[in-house]
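Late entry, evening session. Most of the bench is empty. Finally got around to the prediction I had been postponing all week. Sequence below, unchanged from the version circulated by S.P.
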Amino acid sequence: MAGRPRSEVARHAILRAALELCVRDGYAAVTLKGIAEAAGTGRQTLYRWWPTKAQVLLEAVAEAVGTQPPTPPDSGDPQEDLVVFLRETFALAHGSAGRVVVGLMLDAQSDPALAAELDARLLSPRRRALRGVLERGAPDVDPELAVDVAFGVMCYRLLNRHAEVDAALAEDVAALIVPIR
């Protein structure tokens, strides 16, 4: 990025405002103009640092939830380890993170560059972490299919809002993927 270095105060205000607007108004209604107004910064500041709202929101959610998910310690109980991982992951889906990620995933369908960045910063690290949990404790499970099942259920519920993405779902998905023997 050319030009003046970023003001961290302005940067944090912008990222916070973007998340708040997404929660309040929904992803589709968020605009760079609205983010700038809510953050108390000029539009040129946003355009200099992020050319699209998707890039602002991707950075905001990546900073809020982290790009490397924590992996639970190996308890010796593969189902419990899976439940712990899914509970933590599903908890992030509540509030701003879930709304932003759903919006980003929808925009990514028509923007290959955004799709690649979303995958690199948020999706692939979580897929790898979940695959790691499964590979260490559930060798009989197809890890790729299990990852798709876990995240597929989460995404479906986030998109359709017909049921919660919560701790109960984490337990149900874990029991489906790694049945108690």
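Two things to note before I forget:
The chain has two domains: 8-60, 66-177.
The mean pLDDT is 91.
Will write this up properly tomorrow.
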